[in-house]
């Protein structure tokens, strides 16, 4: 027989394909076989039709196209015999899906088979309908499936229930037709029918609130009875798994009970006894028992439970944490993170066990436990928890130090009550893992030291001691350099010694040794060396005896291959040699850094980073209403992103000043703490003050710090300023004219406020394109219930283009304990002629109830 004729057996074809040694050989075999099948189809060969479909199914599973055999499946389904129908329905489910138009032709055959006297043919039709049913087929055949739910045969009932699930998902409007049959299935004894019926009830609850009410009224007692019967039943070999009778049925019932009890105190009260029985009596030494206990805990947390039942559930999770199985410990940690919002005191009892999980060998468990520890920290346990974590930081794996350091620093910054404790803990972290500390952490430490005059001497001495043992930690070295540059005389003179300190002797030469080591160390980077040069210049004025040595150190770097260091060395050397009369004024101690302003800027920067981390979305031309957050759009690559103009390393325009000292170091020597004026720009405030990598620009803008609203921006007019600049290299004065262009700044507004929601808008303009405005929206929940699935939408007039970036989250915590941020970019094509206007709509869920709020914004600041 020809190996590629339609009469070839399926096993022969499979053997021929598997014998191929290359993909090309396989394609050749499949191509010849498909040609033979096409020839058989064109000849209307009925004898081998079922064999051809079986071959096509195998070829389809290999990934080759088989669309030409779809009509053959329909012909087999229309046959009278069971074998032909079986192959036909199998081919239908494998070769077709609900999107195929040819599927419409099979509806009539399915209807006939659903009414067939042979139960096996009825079962085939139900299986096919449950797998490929479309919305049209569901509407046409729902009545037949509903009728089959009431038959006596348990196998038909089970398949009809599974088919009903598909129909309800495709056409939710048909849910009410299945309510009574679904409730009647819960009275069956056959476990297969029970599981299918419970799953049908679960899907009915998902698609219809009325269905939930109906089932809550009619099925709660039945579910409790099922759980009692299953948990108290004797050994049944057909359902037994690890000594537990049908854990799958347990889990399905518990999930449905969770849906019925959610938000209903009466129904939850009926469930309390059986849930307590399941939680107490189920054995936890087998996986099947653990699965039931986990689902029981989920149900207890999901319904309106009593406090005693909730504590029982959390204790079960505590036992899970001691289990040797990593998966069980991981799901327990996940559940405890949800439970802590409900009953934090009960979770606190397991704090010791959770801390042990932080030291686990499994990386995912360590990370999840660390997140949970962060949620557990409060004012009463912050100090002992921080001590435990810092002790572990010393011996933790290198891969884990980054996450651990970030959490420890967050805890210290969030909950410190004494500034000395804050400084001590930060020094420990910097000494143990300074290379893993982010820049904003050590910047915040410097700001805190600057604002603690009583602790400045203590801080610089503690840093000096820490440097002796941990000089390889980059962030620690930078803080040491900055503090010695500012408070070096306190270190040498033992100023402000506390009672707990031991007296130490440090000479002026010792401080210069530290800075020289930081400047010449092999591990020092550009930022550290730049800071060291500035600190040396300051010490040259405060310690005259070391001036010559400092000059020699600086002179060495006049030939540095790094242009910035070379320039600084030349300028500083010129100051030391030629400008002794102004040096002391030039290197005075920095004014106290504005701590509230820095914290506000840090918070805004973190929110911007969250938004920037999301994938960018492009606006759709010609449409006003934009897609909600979370909907995928083609990523855009705007020029400003490619040039990284919005990053934290952007150049900072300095404030205007007629004092040439400002031009020498780029530092405003006016008392910024009293006036409240701080340099604007995208770089970090400390980098502005240190003038590291900050070229001078002509744009001049300021932000006024207000006690009521943080940064209250103001607009200054543009004016030319004549500045007399002193040439550092030759000492000759020269006259230069610097023109300042003030980019307008705008106040934040309350865009929308109701009893449940508050929305704040802040604005940012790009001077090069006045038509474009960047709006930062902040959403705050004013109610005591959290919002989920939060979506913000906006519509604008046709002369305005609107682009929405993804929101930072879709979950809005209760009572203003957190916010969602989202960035909008609007382009006003008629800028200067027409002002901005916008309609907004917010959709969210509160306790699974969808809420809608909308409004119009007309109070945009003029000039946008």
From TrEMBL:
UniProt domain GAE: residue ranges: 744-861
Provide the Gene Ontology terms for cellular component. AP-1 adaptor complex
Q: Per the record, a Pfam family?
A: Alpha_adaptinC2
Source species, domain of life:
Eukaryota
| Signal peptide start-end | none
Q: What is its main location?
A: membrane
Q: Which GO terms describe its biological process?
A: intracellular protein transport; vesicle-mediated transport
Q: State where the protein is found.
A: Cytoplasmic vesicle, Clathrin-coated vesicle membrane; Golgi apparatus
UniProt keyword annotation of Membrane present:
yes
Determine if Calcium is one of this entry's keywords.
Answer: no
Membrane-topology annotation of the record: Peripheral membrane protein
* Record InterPro entries: Adaptor_Complx_Large_Subunit, AP1_complex_gsu, ARM-like, ARM-type_fold, Clathrin/coatomer_adapt-like_N, Clathrin_a/b/g-adaptin_app_Ig, Clathrin_app_Ig-like_sf, GAE_dom
The task this protein performs is described as: Subunit of clathrin-associated adaptor protein complex 1 that plays a role in protein sorting at the trans-Golgi network and early endosomes (TGN/EE). The AP complexes mediate both the recruitment of clathrin to membranes and the recognition of sorting signals within the cytosolic tails of transmembrane cargo molecules.
Give the protein's recorded name: AP-1 complex subunit gamma
Tell me what organism the protein belongs to: Ensete ventricosum
